[in-house]
């Protein structure tokens, strides 16, 4: 048992103390903070570095909860905001109580953060007193909490050291993609709060399991309370990850959603250095080459509204892109080739996972690599894939015991079938280059000499 002075020297060493606190689980950190004031202060940055918010009607409504967020907000570096699509988030049509006719609701976010009694009496929350009264009577409290932009602004203003924002909105059904739900109003509130809070360190955005229409409410150029400097705030994002519900590839895909995705990515063209995009479900079109899709061309006969869709899409050109990964897409070899050529001066790594080439082959798709390098030596560095049989040992079996089992197995065989150690060494010398590094490390620890 260490003495008090020994522990004190350890505790006063910043690197040792931080390493210890970083290795403790959150449950232990919570109990650790109860020991004394100094332990509480030292452990707080590690305990509250990552927080999760599962949004409900009372999330930002309780004063005690907001006061607690003010106290720990300076420690938060990553925030995960989750709000799933459920029957509670569905919004029915607004009906006039007298005539029974459907009423159109044009939403304009109420962003005034200081609401005294005079302002509440002079400025209705939803445009007019009649509309405000109708929404209060017909829509659930969860809607009013999601549309309460001042509460979102206050919450995000407490997170002044926030670096990574994660948003997750899973569970939307395909038949609801063209209807606005409570989740969409929450996304508008998040966007407005980020734009009006002083989040100077925020540079990473992860949209995990979101529906295609979500980018409409996260795009500052589409209105919904946007300011002239809103775009400047989002151009600070350098790392973007999007995992989106799939828009099925078909001769007549939903063009509106594809155009929204293209417009949203265009917003980050001048700032992104790392980009990851995945389609959830069936394969979809490549988000990096939508301007080359026939269904989205200027004179495409599939245009639902030719008067509104007469302008062609601008090609995506990321000025600082270094690392790119797309997954579960359908694309032409020529589209991949064009993208690599356009980004040849900046890109360092690209990854096409689970990609189906609609036209052409991979040699055509990667032709720019030959022109960039001046030769075809890059093909020689292609990774080889092979099946390597492994003998799995029982859980808890030590390495020495496993080697004894192998020796017993080989000794049990007749002499004619018993492999010699020299034969294995020769096999290792011939096939050493075919094994990846992790297999070499594994075989070096076995009973055979692979060094």
Short description:
The chain has helices spanning 4-11, 14-23, 26-32, 37-47, 63-72, 117-122, 129-138, 141-146, 149-157, 182-196, 214-218, 230-234, 255-266, 333-342, 362-365, 367-373, 399-412, 421-431, 437-444, and strands at residues 50-54, 78-82, 164-168, 204-210, 239-245, 274-280, 284-285, 323-331, 349-357. With 451 residues, the protein is of the alpha/beta class.
Folded structure, characterized:
The chain contains 19 helices and nine strands. The chain is an alpha/beta fold. Strands 1, 2, 3, 4, 5, 6, 7, 8 and 9 form a nine-stranded parallel β-sheet that branches. Helix 3 packs antiparallel against helix 4 and helix 9 packs across helix 10. The longest helix is centred in the middle third of the chain and has 15 residues. The protein is globular. The chain starts with a helix and ends in a 7-residue tail after the last helix. The C terminus is likely disordered.
**What's the overall average pLDDT, rounded?**
80
Shape: globular
The low-confidence parts are: 301-305, 413-431, 447-451
Structural class, from secondary structure content?
A: alpha/beta
Based on CA atoms alone, the radius of gyration comes out at: 29 Å
Tally the helices: 19
Question: β content, as a range?
Answer: 5-15%
Major sheet attributes: 9 strands, parallel
Helix content: 25-40%
Question: What is the number of beta strands?
Answer: 9
Q: Report the span from N to C terminus.
A: 42 Å
The topology string of helices and strands comes to: HHHHEHEHHHHEHEHHEHEEEHEHHHHH
